[in-house]
Amino acid sequence: MHENRRYVKLSCFGLCFASALLCAPAAGAELLSSARAPAALAVGRDGAPRVAYAAGCALHVAVRASAGWQDQTAARCLPLAPNAIDVDGIVVDPHGSSSVLVQDETGAVILLARQTAAGWRLGVVARAGTAGSILGRAGLTLDAQGSPVVAYAVRNARRATFLRLVRVARGGRLVTTRITRGGFPPSLVPPAAAPVLVRGRIHVVEVFDSEGIEWEPVGRTWSGQYLFANIDGINSGPVFATAVGGATWTASTLLEPQFGESDVLVTLRNETEDTSTVFTHAQVSALTLAGGRPEVAANEEVDVSDWADEAALVSDTAGNGTELDGTIEGYATSNGGIRNVLLQTERGLEWFGSPTLPSLHVTLEADASGRLSGTVSGVDEGRVDLYRERPDASPVLLATPSLGAGGVFAASDAAPTAPTLYRAVYRDPATGLPYAYLTTRPVG
Questions:
Q1: Ramachandran area for residue 292 (φ above 0: left; ψ -120 to 50: alpha; else beta)
Q2: Which of helix, strand or coil describes residue 322?
Q3: What is the pTM (predicted TM-score) of this model?
Q4: Closest Cα to residue 285, out of 356, 244, 342, 366?
Q5: What are phi and psi of 8, to 5 degrees?
Q6: Which domains, and CATH codes, for the chain?
Q7: pLDDT tens, residue by residue, 201-243
């Protein structure tokens, strides 16, 4: 579950990365919405984090200010099924205006909500169109002029795919550019796409089947360079991309059911292409750079019968990282190396600020008798919350044992008679971050 395995050693680069967060992280969680909903996070040049989230069919954007989180309604009701909305990304332009990318889980339509002087404006980026066609997960970024750019791919019933780039023209009209033609590359699944700004020009990363390509403009056409190609597996979910100088970093998820794995891959394209596996049982949810080096957020799913529990993970490519409580919806660095963390917990959507990569470790062991024991690394005081988690039931707080010397704790539960997972949560008094460990083998 928590193993970090690297296949390819990454070269070191003296890269620099800049963004802005002018306000210091708060000590404790900041609840910005009680909604348990899909969300995305971004930090603008003004230093304020923004969170886009769907509550029912409504689209909201919350902005962190000195007086707390200020919520805006970007769309009263999206023309999408409320239980099938993906919030694919949010960007903040140099003037502080946000743009949010959403689409439905069925792959039928992609929408772009833009904040303008006249209010929020909702536009259709793409529709799947013909029967059997499906849109893949789309991506959003800003171009060199600070205008939102969307990349997406559509796959038809014959497995032919078509990659497109959409820009905002004068007057707010959405203009589409063809990147690939002739149905290349063929793919079993709809490809995921992400635009990325590289030295002032927009490139597009596309992942399909078990391969990835970075496309860049060459005159009036586009040229592609393979990022990785695997013999087995199939790409799943979104792809994320970011760049510094001429170096491009991408993060994607490769499903390998024959090995019982779901690998989160991070690929560097510079003079060559190098790929490492950061997690082996997770789905990627965010990619950011800190000091020119990538850090990845992902969610790990633990299956119990027909039910699944989740754990939030963050790490760099060297294996430095940790597990957090809940699921991670957003992760972004800003000025001074502050990490903005957006978690979906039992309370709703919670924001945290950490001055460094979260790296405190919690362990937990549970046996069939109900005995629980574990440690919190480097901590000798405080308490740990221990939860029992079962299918179709809310988590139950069992005990809050105090930490002993070396961060050791222990407690007991009645011997489980049904498949049961346990979770230990330690809340850092400095940042409020809920460091956690979810057991991966059910007992009972």
A1: left
A2: strand
A3: 0.92
A4: 342
A5: -130, 125
A6: 30-354 (2.120.10.70), 362-438 (2.60.40)
A7: 999 999 999 999 999 999 999 999 999 998 889 999 999 999 9
